[in-house]
Amino acid sequence: MPGTAEAVRGALGLIGAGDPVLAGIVALSLAVSLSAVALAALIGLPLGAAIAVGRFPGRRALIVLLNALMGLPPVVVGLLIYLLLSRAGPLGEMGLLFTPSAMVIAQTVLVLPIIAALCRQAVEDAWVEYEEQLRSLGAEGLRAALTLVWDIRFSLVTAVLAGLGRALAEVGAVMIVGGNIDGVTRVMTTTIALETSKGDLPLALSLGFILIALVVLLNAAAHLIKEAAQRRYG
Q1: What percentage of the chain has pLDDT greater than the value 70?
Q2: What superfamily does domain 17-184 belong to in CATH?
């Protein structure tokens, strides 16, 4: 096993050389996580907004459940998706197990509650401020919810990025449903876990550096978007 300094130099060398194996793992990770976040946002943003604006029996219980689901154990989600997609499961005939599609499904289930819960809180705060104005304009229910989502869209970037951060950092669920197959379903987090156990620290470190850089860039982008929105809309 190489020493720390040697491992760091090796990691930087892989990144600087544009190692094709490294690039393929990063590309697959981004494709899976971005697809999952996009699906989760399409479902979670309207869902969170509808819960924020709506008044119906069981609303409080639903909010508590949604908040609780933010802490879903990834391995449990992976197990449930595995059972659904396995040959004996109800969706086994689709042949999705151990494919990137299965990983997208698992990450979507994990990310959806985060985006929906954070959106619900943000829209509810905006609803308190603009409820009377929206009602006077005849906007109620789903129409009011979607109006608020559009109005605070820049604030919701944080919710989406929180979901993306969860997706990029996830290990357990994608390991179970993806199988960590080399060149097929091996993403950054599963590769880091595998290569560290094998003692291949340069590859593990290079992926770790890239993962950290992606998180920093995403948060910087969110900050710039918010600042631009504040300057434009006051």
Answers
A1: 91
A2: MetI-like (1.10.3720.10)
